[in-house]
Design a protein that fits this description.
By secondary structure, the chain is an alpha/beta fold. Helix content is about 20%, strand content about 35%. It contains two helices and five strands.
Length: about 70
């Protein structure tokens, strides 16, 4: 997948992922269970990940940065 940017909606159990390429075309739209989020991002080339501000956002930002992603 040629992903440029990902929107990540954080939740307690099921997260929503929406990814676009450099032409702003949707390349991925899916639900991920909490225990599969890191596996999903580990498979991707580093990209920009935008997520909402909430209680677990700092935790997920640290985890995704360790995988090489830019988090906002």
């Amino acid at each position: 997948m040629n992903i440029k940017r990902i929107g990540l909606d954080l939740a307690k159990q099921v997260f929503q992922v929406h990814a676009v390429d450099s032409h702003e075309q949707v390349v991925c739209r899916r639900q991920l269970k909490r225990d599969k989020v890191q596996d999903f991002f580990r498979q991707l080339a580093p990209c920009l990940v935008a997520m909402e501000a909430c209680g677990s956002a700092h935790y997920w930002a640290r985890e995704l940065r360790q995988l090489g992603h830019e988090v906002r």
